[in-house]
Amino acid sequence: MSNNVIIKDAVKRYGDFTALCGVSLDIKEGEFFTLLGPSGCGKTTLLRMIAGFNSIEGGDFYFGEKRINDVPAHKRDIGMVFQNYAIFPHLTVRDNVAYGLKARKVPAAQIKARVDEALELVQISHLADRKPNELSGGQQQRVALARAFVIEPSVLLMDEPLSNLDAKLRVHMRSVIKKLQRRLGITTIYVTHDQEEALAISDRIAVMKEGRIMQIGTPSQIYAKPENPFVAGFIGVSNFLDCDAKGNGEELELTIAGELNIRVPARTAFSGKAKLSARPEQLFFADEGMPGAVLFSTFLGDFIEYEVRLDNGQDIIVNEYTKDTVLVHPDGEHIHLWFDPQRVSVYDAQTGEVLTR
User: What is the C-alpha separation between 173 and 208, in angstroms, rounded?
Assistant: First the structure.
């Protein structure tokens, strides 16, 4: 039976350093929830507090209605998948997967049936009698996954489980993990620093920086409507353009480089210096707009990536999809760029507050 996970004002300190600064989360039952951020942002610290491996200096942690702050790690009914797999080298695959069930004193007949089912789910039944040193990295990761969910935990925790795999295998294994989680319906909290991985695998994402939550949302919300410049710059690629903004709360009029004027929908009245954020695919070549020149292009299969130098001296990235064009703009070509005002984000240059809807 899965649980929802509620965290209220979590604080973690190491001496004078505060690793978590009052973090609050409400993770739904059966949800795949990802903690995403750069190294040192506090995501693994928070995961280890949920697991019971780290002490809690402040705040309240709940599984369902049960406060777990003082519950020992081995009694929290969690499954854990570590970055280094942490499977036992002297045990076979079958015995590794059965270990947690034996520790819980599950009857032997049930253990065999549940282990067989788990091995089948991760598609390694044919490897049941092998030792870990006879397995590839991806196969070892499947053993770690099977061992974590075979105990039917109420919460499954994963700490960068794919970081030791090569790029192609990472893509394959994230698909395996997502399908398994949806099939089993276990509340899952996943830690990664890989933005693409988080976008591909999550129901919702919490983006973290320096022990704080910067934004919580679905992958599409996080990518399309970042709430601050940090999220816009950390998730994918964003071009930031300085501009002057003026608006009454319904609409913002932006002046870019002193020559280009556009209007964007606003969420608040504002007048002053601002920053416009546009993704490479939100920019396109046009007959008018921001003038510049193509520095060089990179053909990447489904799209062409251009580096463009605007006449104001700023370099930006533009993506043009090959399905939409047969033309490749040559290096040195003078061009104009435009964008969809409904899709860009604008921020207060001083505070980082988002100004657009």
Answer: 24
